[in-house]
Structure formats: structure tokens, C-alpha cells
Amino acid sequence: MKEELNVMQERKVWHLVDLPPNIDPIGCRWVFALKKNETGEVVRYKARLVGQGFKRIKGISYDVTFSPVVNFSLIRFFFAVLVVGQNWVHIQCDIKCAYLYAPLKEDVFMKQPPGFEVKGKEGMVCKLDKALYGLHQSGREWFFEIHNTLKNLGFNKFEWCNCIYSYENDLLLLLYVDDIVFIGRSIEKVMRGIKLLQKYFDLKILGKTRRLLGVEFEEKNEEVFIHQSMYIDEIHRRFSEYLIPFSSLPSVKVSFLPDPNVLKQIMKGRKWQNFLIGIY
């Protein structure tokens, strides 16, 4: 938690002011999560401070919220054509606390984080200067921040799709919010692109693309196998009472369905709805 607040202080996410009249400040809360690697092992415990942006009113506190991302079908396409077809190099990177780089245009006031109020200034509120997580417009503001930075660095955006940029015809950058995949003709080309971005953002190099958006990338014999084994195992662990036993193909001619009365009782719960969403 202190690490998160230190990052916010470094990037000047807010400054304390007296609450203006007729203003209802939003609250904030801590969200905790586990960061896992490509094998499912926990590598980091994350704490993130998020603003309660759901209390804001569209048209007053924010307007347009749409933010583009790269289409995953195009990620598969470039891996097939360039990585497998032409043996290009790929490196995955992550931008730490990406939203906190983006300036916030609207006036948003927030209560100080509970338990971390500044001594002697407990009655003051935070006027947000950067796009804090939890605000409706934060994703959009971050996109424009990195888009303009890439443009100034000489990257050219593809006209026919979102969030794909080229650099000197031998380097591609695929952007999905704060996840970046560089695909280049050589490792030198890729590292050049990474170093350009590291001048402006805290860019962490994760190595070859192993896991992206819940999908695993596995290289075998100059081929790339894309699958979701970890996700399937997670679904099986969380919803094991709903799943029929595994069966090899071709399957035997027997029914693996559970007792209809038991299934009917299970389907009444909210967990069943979560299961259907998970396998969709």
C-alpha cells in the first residue's frame, strides 16, 4: 500500500485543497490482487487505490469514455505471419501504474485514502491531477497519453486497426491498455523501441510473450501454440461441482451428465451464472 502511495506521490496524482462549496467528493478504496506468472505461481501481491467513480454523473464529471485496444485476432495474425513465418523476435512489456501518467482534464475531488490522511490536514480533500484507477475516463486519458508519446517518438499508427504501431518498417508495437508486445526483425530493433519508451514510462521487460490477457503462448519447434490451459484449470477448480468428468476422444457411449434434480438445484444459484460467464 505504501509502495502504491509512493508512486502516486512521485507522479503527482493529486494535491490537497479545501473542499469547494456544493461539491460532494468521491470516496476511494483499496483493491487487492495476486500477480501470477505464466505457470500460475504467485509472484507479487498487489494493492491498488481506486476512486469510486461510479458516483460521478455523465456529462458533468466525465463525457466520452471509449478507449481502443488491439484486437486479439490481430495479435494471433502477427504471431503467425512474423514470428512463425519470418522468425521475428517478440518481447512482452508492462507499464507500471500506467493510468497515473495521464493528466485529468475534469475537476474531480476525492476524500483522502482511509488510514493515510495527512496529519494536520485531515479536513482537506484530494484534487485529482492524474487519471486515477476507478474513474470512467481514466482508460481513455491513458490511451491518448501513450498514443501521443508514441507519435512524438516516430511510431506510426496503422490506419486500418486500433493500437498497432510501426517503427522504421521493422518493428511493431501491439498495445492493450498497459500491456505491450514488441515484434521486431531482430532483438536489437526490439530493444531500441523499448529504450525509447523507457525514457517516458516505467516499462518492465517481461521477456518473451508467455501469457497475455489470460492466453498462453508456447513455442515449440519453431511454432507458437496458443492455448488457455491455466484458465481451464482455474475454471475446473472454482466450479468443479458443475463439471462433468473428463473423457478422452472418441468418447464412450454413456452419459456423463449429473442427476437432473441436482443440476436443477445448482442452476438456481448465482455461482452457476458466474460459471456460464466463465466458459463463454
TrEMBL record:
Reverse transcriptase Ty1/copia-type domain ranges (all copies): 12-239
BP terms from Gene Ontology: DNA biosynthetic process
Entry superkingdom: Eukaryota
SUPFAM superfamilies: DNA/RNA polymerases
InterPro entries cross-referenced by the UniProt entry: DNA/RNA_pol_sf (IPR043502), RVT_2 (IPR013103)
Protein name stated in the entry: Retrovirus-related Pol polyprotein from transposon TNT 1-94
Organism of provenance: Araneus ventricosus
Phylogenetic placement of the source organism: Eukaryota, Metazoa, Ecdysozoa, Arthropoda, Chelicerata
Gene: POLX_2242
